[in-house]
Specification:
- Helix 5 packs across helix 8 (285-300).
- The protein contains 9 helices and 12 strands.
- It is an alpha+beta fold.
- The relative contact order is 0.17.
- It is 34% helix and 31% strand.
Length: 340
């Protein structure tokens, strides 16, 4: 067996960070080849511009002196301070040789020293009758003693085959239920007059979305945290399109959604948060913001072809909206949780 050495990566200028990126690229190509190659600018930003409340430590594992694995260990410091999040990547050529275990042992040691009670990470899995996916991640998690806490399903919208007339009809039907509401749009930076409403809605996400057995408390958002996240995303060269619904009687934004485009490739996006304030549900506002935001983004991103979104498997309401839009299941992503 090769000697495995795990060392911290202290800066983005360290050649080890570029080696870590190459490990991530190789692993994703082997495990989820339908996803685009990770963007270097986005990966670089994880080191140079972490999101507020999510300080992350980075490590490279070498086997026999060669780059073999990468660990990103996030220890939240604004909320969820009993948790740690682990992201472990092992180059396909070095799997089943103890690299992943060496990286996990480093993560567990640090997490215990920092007083964390549990570690959380995810791994891809195949859906019944779906495309093949490796089960190495699940096997590894079980070997460590982790338990599956929440299953998300990734769905994909192929804009080259979408029925635009059907989307227009879906949107028109939704607006029939939404008298007394109007639209607001923004790119990248939340307008000051709406920022308190967006902070409130952001903070509701983990309260309202199904969380299964995952021990993850709602995150607290305020103006400062939102502005810091916007600055980090700009530094990562991400482009974010947002559509909100304003309740005309109060002037408050009561629903919004976000499409997030990494710097590269230009034809790919993540569908991010979609949230509706509980008192305003039943008016099809979730459908409205998603469809209006899709139209908004396509105007400014004519190259956009593919959108991926993740939803908890039991989030039947949002899944129904997505599937009516044309999103189709691809694979599942299991959140594994280990008590330390």
């Amino acid at each position: 067996m090769d000697t495995i050495v795990v060392t911290p990566i202290e800066s983005a200028e360290d050649p080890a960070y570029r080696q870590a990126y190459q490990i991530v690229v190789a692993g994703q190509a082997a495990d989820v080849p339908d996803m685009p190659e990770p963007c270097w600018d986005f990966f670089l930003g994880k080191m140079t511009h972490p999101l507020p409340g999510q300080p992350t430590r980075h490590f490279l594992a070498r086997a026999g002196g060669e780059p073999a694995g990468y660990l990103a260990l996030t220890l939240p410091d604004l909320d969820n301070t009993e948790n740690g999040h682990v992201e472990i990547h092992v180059h396909p050529q070095y799997r089943r040789r103890g690299v992943g275990r060496a990286l996990f042992d480093r993560a567990g040691s640090i997490a215990r020293q920092e007083g964390r009670k549990r570690l959380i990470g995810d791994a891809v899995a195949a859906l019944p009758g779906g495309v093949a996916r490796p089960d190495a991640g699940a096997q590894f998690a079980r070997t460590l003693g982790a338990k599956p806490a929440l299953t998300d399903v990734r769905r994909r919208l192929d804009l080259t085959t979408v029925d635009d007339d059907a989307l227009a009809e879906q949107l028109a039907r939704a607006w029939l239920r939404a008298d007394g509401y109007s639209l607001v749009w923004w790119r990248d930076v939340v307008p000051g007059e709406y920022i308190d409403d967006i902070a409130y809605l952001d903070g509701r996400l983990n309260k309202d979305a199904p969380m299964g057995d995952l021990v993850w408390e709602p995150e607290i958002f305020d103006r400062r945290r939102i502005r810091a996240a916007e600055a980090a995303n700009r530094a990562r060269k991400r482009r974010r399109y947002n559509t909100g619904v304003r309740h005309n009687a109060t002037g408050r934004v009561v629903a919004f959604t976000t499409l997030d485009l990494p710097h590269c490739p230009a034809d790919y996006a993540w569908q991010q948060i979609t949230i509706v304030e509980p008192q305003h549900r039943g008016h099809r506002l979730g459908t409205i913001v998603k469809l209006e935001n899709l139209r908004y983004a396509r105007v400014h991103e004519p190259a956009l072809r593919t959108i991926d979104t993740w939803n908890a498997a039991e989030n039947t309401h949002m899944i129904a909206i997505n599937e009516e839009m044309g999103f189709r299941p691809v694979d599942s992503w299991i959140n594994w949780q280990l008590n330390l």
